[in-house]
Amino acid sequence: MNDNEVLFNPLKLGAIETPHRIFMAPLTRGRSTERVPNAMMAEYYTQRASAGLIISEATAISKQGYGWHGAPGIYADQHVEGWKRVTDAVHAAGGRMFLQLWHMGRVSHPDYQNGEQPVGPSPTAATGEAHTPTGKKPYVVPRELSKSEIASIVDDYAVATVRARNAGFDGVEIHGANGYLIDQFLRDSSNLRTDEYGGSVANRVRFLEEVTRAVASAWASNRTGVRLSPTMNGNGMSDTDPIGLYSHVAKMLSGFHLAYVHTAESIRPGRLFNPDVPRVTPHIRANYDGTLITNGGYDKTAAANAIRTSTADAVAFGQFFIANPDLPERIRIDAQLNRPVQETFYGPADSGYVDYPFLS
User: Fold this and answer.
1) How far apart are CA 107 and CA 114, in angstroms?
2) Helix, strand, or coil here: 95?
3) Among 67, 100, 195, 358, whose Cα sits 20 to 30 Å from the Cα of 45?
4) C-alpha span between 291 and 12 (Å, rounded)
5) Would the pTM of this model clear 0.85, i.e. be above it?
6) Do the Cβ atoms of 116 and 73 come closer than 8 Å?
7) Quick one: 86 exposed, middle or buried, by C-beta within 10 A (0-12, 13-18, 19+)?
8) For all residues of the chain together, what is the average pLDDT?
């Protein structure tokens, strides 16, 4: 099959079917109003409704899990109402949309926590800076979560899942990537615990397993996805055996019969990706028996080759979707792509958000 036949082949994705395999990756844009999705966000996502699947920007499951200025939430009634306006508009335009469930853990900041420490698996700080309402500030040492607090956060994921369903989403994606709370439990650079949530791979995977079970039980396993970033090493994240860790994660997730697993692992190593670490996505593919989405540096040819060779079943595009609301059609006819403007990636203005031109 040629590239278009590969990319524009429908895909059964758990409880839904997508008309093609060009998905929109989750993209933090910082445009919400006091954590509530607004009309500008509805316009932005509706413009991109031709994606095979839209995965929303990361969305906080609780006040404790919040930590990025301008990001939305899903823990209050007004959040549900705001997101309902978004999903209604996307569905009216023929689209499909999952909500990404987010707890930032140690990479939140006291400015979001009433002056208290953010939380994490262990009292070890991330490297880098938090995005606060008054600018970037260094990350602080988090407070180590107790086992009872871990159980409470698992419940928060389940409650957020019910809210996402009530907000009209087609499913949810558990954010287990990018150095956020679940990722902090998974990797041995950030998880220094000595109880049943730390130490061995099986113990470090326990939190993700409990969250996945809670989310799938709150709605349905075939409306649940999980995102992983096995070699994304920003904010001081790393693991001594990523292949062993994520092979175990893949086998564990296979037992849930999910809608998909989604890997963020660039095919073009750079600042956040260690070029000396072999890619782990092929090992996840070998150990996961469900649908696999991948994301990171793909163009049309690379995406088609990934699907053609069964490296993945679909490919999610990030920056290309920021700049090209009609990306699937541009890919189909090999049209020139708009260039994304990095300076406008994050809010609050509509410039660089809803004003990228369509082909027509």
Assistant:
1) 15
2) coil
3) 67
4) 9
5) yes
6) no
7) buried
8) 96
As a whole number of angstroms, the distance between CA 126 and CA 339 comes to: 32
Band (347; pLDDT cuts 50, 70, 90): confident
Catalytic pick from 66, 112, 139, 180? 180
* Under 8 Å between Cβ of 207 and 197: yes
DSSP state of 69: T
Residue 98, SS3 per DSSP: strand
Q: How many residues does the chain have?
A: 360
Percentage above 90 pLDDT, the chain = 94
How does DSSP assign 129-141, residue by residue?
EEEETTEEEE--P
CA distance 42 to 89: 7
Helix, strand, coil % (nearest 5) of the chain?
Answer: 35, 20, 45
Between β-strands 97-102 and 54-60, what pairing exists: parallel, antiparallel or unpaired? parallel
| Cβ(122)–Cβ(193) below 8 Å | yes
Structure tokens at 265: 């692992």
Q: Is 228 exposed, middle or buried (0-12, 13-18, 19+ CB in 10 A)?
A: buried
Q: Is the pLDDT of residue 275 over 70?
A: no
| 273 close to 266: Cβ distance less than 8 angstroms | yes
CB 1 within 8 A of CB 47: no
Q: Which of 183, 190, 186 has its CA nearest to residue 203?
A: 186
Contact 79, 72 (CB under 8 A): yes
Token pair for 214:
């809670």
Residue 16 φ then ψ, to 5°: -120, 170
pLDDT-based confidence at 131, cuts 50/70/90? confident
pLDDT of 272 reads 47
CA distance 237 to 295: 19
Annotation says 157 is catalytic:
no
190 is written with which tokens? 């950030």
If 0-12 CB within 10 Å is exposed, 13-18 middle and 19+ buried, where does residue 334 land? Answer: exposed
**In terms of DSSP bridges, do strands 16-18 and 11-13 run parallel, antiparallel, or are they unpaired?**
antiparallel
d(CA 359, CA 335): 8
Whether 258 contacts 216, CB under 8 Å: yes
